[in-house]
Specification:
Its EC number is 1.14.11.13. It catalyses: gibberellin A1 + 2-oxoglutarate + O2 = gibberellin A8 + succinate + CO2. GO terms for molecular function: gibberellin 2-beta-dioxygenase activity; metal ion binding. This is gibberellin 2beta-dioxygenase. The protein has a single domain, classed as B-lactam Antibiotic, Isopenicillin N Synthase, Chain (Jelly Rolls), CATH 2.60.120. The strands form three sheets. Strands 2-3-11-8-13-6-5-4 form an eight-stranded mixed beta sheet. Strands 1-10-9-12-7 form a five-stranded mixed beta sheet, with no helix packed on it. It has a two-stranded antiparallel ribbon with strand order 14-15. The protein is 32% helix and 20% strand. The chain contains eight helices and 15 strands.
Length: 338
């Protein structure tokens, strides 16, 4: 029999069952079950067009990115400049990291206490996450004081991936800004390794699937997110008021618009609600890069009249935290509508 030190999974089942018991008592355990949910393929965009010397070809690529961001809030990219070898190397390092015993993950200061699991503030099943993650600020990855423990090879791989993801995120953000304004030089401002994040996710097999969320429905509180996922599936997004399942593509990265870009674009680009459903038999891995500004950065529409009042990223984050504490869920951009 394995000892408690050998168990790598966090105590998700215990937390889930306790929530289920509490939710039953207060009548909050009903789910909108996804019956007959359809699978979709996200718009697929070849980024070679952005590097083309042909002006028409480049413009067509920019327009395709903008159209997908308006109609879907999500799209996939090919020829993105991040090698499959690097992504596979990151996946191997990620798997080794998550196989660390749970007690060590929560107590050894790995990646400077960036480990997260479940949802400690959840008061009902609808808020609970059947997952674990390392949510790492980019500046911390290269910090000589960052604790990698026995995972010394992880630092170099994370540094390479963070650099490549950062470059891609700024290229995409620049293209989206270029589509709306004549001179987008410098956009987005104040997004660098001191403000952006890399998140390593693992979704253990869940005996309660399909009832449990790997991640509950949410929108991202950033400019944009770049996601590399495995072939297990589970990502779903809201399209025309219905949930649709995203078909995995092994050659593509997924990009989605965040709340800040929706506000900056005056609702032209959409920050779309999405979730991850737990899998009953197979663990799932993903890596997400979040393009965020400094907390003091002001978010305002690129044009007037604006749909939203101006706000700093810090004010937005504080409001999200207050709403989660008060209502159990994020309210987000509607808080800042004029």
């Amino acid at each position: 029999m394995p000892t408690s030190d050998d168990v790598c999974d966090p105590p998700l089942a215990e937390s889930y069952q306790a929530l289920f018991h509490d939710s039953e008592k207060i009548g909050q355990h009903s789910y909108d079950q996804d019956q007959g949910i359809r699978e979709c393929e996200l718009p697929l965009i070849d980024l070679r067009g952005l590097r083309s010397s042909d002006g028409d070809e480049r413009r067509a690529c920019v327009e395709a990115i903008a159209e997908a961001s308006s109609e879907w809030g999500f799209f996939q990219v090919l020829n993105h400049g991040i090698s499959r070898e690097l992504l596979e190397e990151m996946r191997r390092e990620q798997m080794k990291l998550f196989r660390t015993p749970f007690e060590k993950k929560i107590s050894s200061r790995l990646l400077n206490d960036s480990y997260r699991w479940g949802n400690p503030t959840a008061t009902s099943l609808k808020q609970f996450s059947w997952s674990e993650a390392f949510h790492v600020p980019l500046a911390q990855i290269s910090d000589k004081n960052c604790c990698y423990g026995e995972f010394s090879s992880l630092r170099e791989v994370m540094e390479k991936l963070a650099g490549a993801m950062s470059e891609l995120a700024h290229i995409l953000a620049g293209a989206l800004a270029e589509n709306l304004v004549h001179n987008s030089h410098g956009f987005p401002d104040n997004c660098n390794k001191n403000t952006c994040f890399l998140r390593l996710n693992r979704y253990p097999p869940c005996p309660f699937s399909p009832e449990a969320f790997g991640l509950p429905p949410h929108t991202d509180s950033d400019f944009l997110t770049i996601l590399h996922q495995d072939q297990v599936g589970g990502l779903q997004l809201m399209k025309e008021s219905k949930w649709v399942a995203v078909k995995p593509n092994p050659d593509a990265l997924i990009v989605n618009i965040g709340d800040l870009f929706q506000a900056w674009s005056n609702d032209i680009y959409k920050s779309v609600e999405h979730k991850v459903m737990a899998n009953g038999k197979i663990e799932r891995y993903s890596i997400a890069y979040f393009l965020c500004p400094s907390y003091g950065s002001t978010i305002r529409s690129y044009e007037e009249p604006s749909l939203y009042e101006s706000f700093t990223f810090g004010e937005f984050r504080q409001q999200v935290q207050e709403d989660v504490k008060r209502f159990g869920q994020k309210v987000g951009l509607p808080r800042f509508l004029l």
